[in-house]
């Protein structure tokens, strides 16, 4: 599988994502985050790379003050529309998350469904996202991220997988560049109820993955500390045997 262009993360996003199987777990994910971080509903939350606002909207419906940021105009427009339709006060900003300049303003920062972690052109650019996270948090603030685990990639890639959703069958292909620690991910959905098309995955999204040890060092350099790691939203402990990696950290 070939890699997409280095700035792939700026292109190709659409609201078709709403039909993908992994968005169906949004409410369970929000409930897990609230419980794990011990949130009360009074916290101010920053959702980085918020997409069309599925998590941000859910938090806002539960009374949280929420700001969502995403680079894709179509996503932000849809999030604003949904927020207005539900009479919510959530705020959404179209911007590259590297460009936001919040400082000591938020009780919680989220990077969910990757949250653009590892998406950027170089390691140096990717580290800027962690700078944004630490700068935006108040002292004692909490960060939660949902990414793919580099240790799993090293042990199990390349591989393929499939997931049965309510609206479609999701197929995925994963490759691994050991030198750059970048995953190549390609996906294809087969909707139910219409003639199936032959899957075509000509190129993959190049994403820098991190191990728990790498993330611990990155956070330590920014006066943050990992509190707990998980491998799913059921609370299972993090493991190299699982692709998903959830990391809960605090700002010291």
Sheet of most strands: 7 strands, mixed
- Poorly predicted segments: none
How do the SSEs run, as a string of H and E? EHEHEHEEHEHEEEEHEE
**Global structural class:** alpha/beta
- The CATH C-level name of the largest domain is Alpha Beta
- Radius of gyration in whole Å, from Cα? 18 Å
- The side-by-side strand order for the widest beta sheet comes to 4-3-2-5-6-12-11
CATH architecture descriptor text of the largest domain: 3-Layer(aba) Sandwich
Helix content: 25-40%
What keyword list fits this structure?
2 domains, 252 residues, 6 helices, Rossmann fold, seven-stranded mixed beta sheet
Break the fold down into its secondary structure elements and pairings.
Blueprint: E1 2-3, H1 26-37, E2 44-48, H2 54-61, E3 65-70, H3 73-85, E4 91-94, E5 106-111, H4 123-136, E6 137-148, H5 150-156, E7 159-164, E8 168-177, E9 182-191, E10 203-208, H6 212-221, E11 224-230, E12 244-251
Parallel strand pairs: 1-10, 2-3, 2-5, 3-4, 5-6
Antiparallel strand pairs: 6-12, 7-8, 8-9, 9-10, 11-12
Helix pairs in contact: 1-2
Write up this protein.
The protein has 252 residues and is of the alpha/beta class. It folds into two domains: 7-148 and 210-251, 3-Layer(aba) Sandwich (Rossmann fold); 152-206. 25% of the residues lie in helices and 33% in strands. It is built from six helices and twelve strands. It has helices spanning 26-37, 54-61, 73-85, 123-136, 150-156, 212-221; strands spanning 2-3, 44-48, 65-70, 91-94, 106-111, 137-148, 159-164, 168-177, 182-191, 203-208, 224-230, 244-251. The strands form two sheets. It has a seven-stranded mixed β-sheet, with helices on both faces. A five-stranded mixed β-sheet has the order 1-10-9-8-7. Strand 5, helix 4 (123-136) and strand 6 (137-148) form a beta-alpha-beta unit. It is globular.
